[in-house]
């Protein structure tokens, strides 16, 4: 008997889909992700505070915390977001054009044929 079949029999769900099991696995995965993110942030903070040699990472961390630079950083963040959205829209438009007519953007779009006699 296969593993899948045994699990279905144990759950009392003959050939069906168990939503409870899916929700449990999803919750555990989300919790694991949150813990990993928290640990990563703690390690980065420890490196930033423990490394007082004034390296590039230290200066970037300090610069992000200064209130007078927040306005500039927010505007740069907004600019990068707008640029990303524009590039994504251009990419979608170009992909639609290529799907509709693949030869439209080709460099050899010459429809005249040469007759060799």
Automatic annotation (TrEMBL):
Its main location: membrane. One of its GO terms (biological process) is tissue regeneration. GO terms for cellular component: membrane. InterPro entries: Ninjurin. The keyword Transmembrane applies. It is a multi-pass membrane protein. Keywords: Cell adhesion, Membrane, Transmembrane, Transmembrane helix. The chain crosses the membrane at residues 79-100. It is found in: Membrane. It holds the Pfam family Ninjurin. Belongs to the ninjurin family. This is Uncharacterized protein. It comes from Didymodactylos carnosus.
């Amino acid at each position: 008997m296969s593993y899948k079949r045994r699990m279905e029999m144990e759950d009392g769900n003959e050939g069906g889909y168990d939503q409870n099991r899916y929700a449990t696995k999803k919750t555990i995965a989300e919790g694991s992700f949150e813990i990993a993110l928290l640990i990563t942030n703690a390690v980065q903070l420890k490196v930033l505070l423990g490394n007082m040699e004034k390296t590039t990472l230290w200066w970037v961390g300090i610069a992000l915390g200064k209130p007078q630079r927040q306005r500039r950083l927010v505007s740069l963040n907004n600019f990068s977001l707008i640029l990303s959205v524009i590039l994504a829209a251009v990419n979608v438009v170009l992909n639609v054009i290529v799907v509709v007519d693949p030869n439209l953007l080709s460099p050899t779009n010459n429809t005249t044929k040469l007759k060799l006699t």
